[in-house]
Amino acid sequence: MIIPESVTRIGDEAFSFCRNLDNVSMPNTVTSIGDEAFFSCWNLANVNIPGSVTSIGHNAFCACYRLTEVDIPSSVTSMGDYLFNDCQNLTRAIINASVYHIGHGTFNRCFRLQEVRIPDTIQTIGVRAFCDCSELKNITIPSSVSWIEDSAFEGCGLTSLDMPISVTRIGAQAFMKCRSLAEVNLSLWLKIIDSHAFYWCKSLTDIDIPASVHYIADHAFQGCDSLQTITFRGLTKMDEDAGVFDGCTSLKTIKVPSRYLDIYEDMLPVELGKLLIGYY
User: How many CA atoms lie within 13 A of 2 on its CB side?
Assistant: First the structure.
């Protein structure tokens, strides 16, 4: 389908449920794409988003099952939530948009997503933004990001994570059930690791908690049954009955600064207190 140059806006639900639509070519006159504009266009395989577009609405391309690649131009200053939710054959997404937030559920359930480029304007990665992207092995988080929100990467195929120093908070369930995640380098400015953040990260063998982290919430590392070594670089508060490390059955050593050894003994469950080793 070729949209004529007389069109400046594609309205809400304009082509939603057009199940036979397989190709869309937009002219440079289009400035906005409305909410659910191409929602559930099951056979839409190719779409160009021209450099004239400044806003894309919520669920605009949700459930476009045959879509394999998307390129969002730098002209875009507003991106809605669940933009490509359930685009189950999407493999590549290039985001050049001038936005500050990857919206909630933007790539939720994009099971075959393998390559993503995020611009260095992004400050937050939203709730479920990349949830269940099981083939996403690597991602570069730009140094502009300060908050990774709840379930942002839950169930992803990530194998390693190099977190930029700008990140100060990891949301609840942010990396929950990332079963292939074997290496994590946390931000040196990180302050809070929220509930179930790394729950069931079954390939994780060691974790180094920076001195900047002042609180780890309940069950943050529960079920990490390959985890062997934990190193605390400062004094990090945990609630004794919060099950932060429940089910970490391979755990052998917990290293803490010697001056905080007594505090950690009181804070951790008895069985974990026996694994404490003071250093420097």
Answer: 2
